[in-house]
Design brief:
Largest sheet: 5 strands, antiparallel
Order of helices and strands: HHEEEEEEEEE
Strand content: 15-25%
Radius of gyration: 41 Å
Number of strands: 9
Oligomer: single chain
Number of helices: 2
Structural class: mainly beta
Low-confidence stretches: none
Shape: rod-shaped
Distance between the termini: 86 Å
Mean pLDDT: 85
């Protein structure tokens, strides 16, 4: 290590660092203390302004801001006190192929509820209704009901309203009649873009209310909604 001596030649055009004074260093300094720390800072010392490490353990600062690079366990304090409500709108990119274990409860496979069939023929009939329920999965709706027509001489064509969801515009909706005490075939048609259905005979003609006077009809409507 060179030794600076108190001679004109050694001091000429040189800056002498004094530990007691604040000074600006313009030349590069190399610390070589083997395995020892290059310098020591007291624990009570203030932070040094404008001192910014380029990398930490070879990584830029943005690396440590990315949660994907985190390891270990995230503490409870890092989560908000109230989490967003879980709803279908919040579930995106849910791939069924990722479900490999366990079972999905029936309640998660669709929604169920009740509905009220009404006379929509314009005759103002009061129907006796029982067992009117529906099941919906996505846009698919299956609605069932057991209705009894009152005694009526109305020649209005049959029309049942009150479907739980409005069918989309399509001519492909339908269903079937499980039971009736009418001694004839009853076909069921769900109306397009209207929450109604109607009963037809085998010839494609709409039954009148009078034809079903006092009769029972148990049916299932199957259609798609928006």
């Amino acid at each position: 290590m060179p030794t600076v001596t108190n001679t004109t030649g050694e001091l000429n055009a040189r800056t002498i660092l004094l530990a007691e004074l604040a000074q600006t260093i313009s030349g590069a300094k190399t610390f070589d203390r083997g395995g020892s720390a290059p310098f020591i800072v007291n624990s009570g010392a203030a932070k040094v302004a404008n001192l910014d490490a380029d990398k930490l353990d070879g990584q830029e600062g943005s690396y440590f801001l990315d949660l994907a690079n985190a390891t270990g366990t995230i503490g409870d304090a890092q989560f908000p006190a109230t989490l967003p409500a879980l709803s279908g709108a919040n579930l995106t990119n849910l791939n069924a192929s990722n479900l490999t274990l366990g079972t999905v409860p029936h309640a998660r496979l669709g929604t169920t509820g009740s509905w009220t069939p009404t006379d929509a023929s314009g005759a103002g009939l009061t129907l006796t209704v029982s067992g009117a329920s529906y099941w919906r999965l996505g846009t698919l709706v299956i609605a069932t009901a057991w209705i009894v027509y009152p005694a009526t001489a109305s020649t209005n064509t049959t029309e049942i309203g009150g479907l739980p969801f409005t069918p989309m515009a399509s001519s492909m909706h339908g269903g079937y009649v499980q039971y009736t005490d009418l001694a004839a075939l009853i076909l069921l048609l769900v109306r397009s873009a209207s929450p109604q259905l109607a009963f037809f005979n085998g010839g494609g003609n709409n039954y009148t209310n009078a034809t079903l006077s006092g009769k029972q009809v148990r049916f299932t409507a199957i259609y798609h909604t928006t």
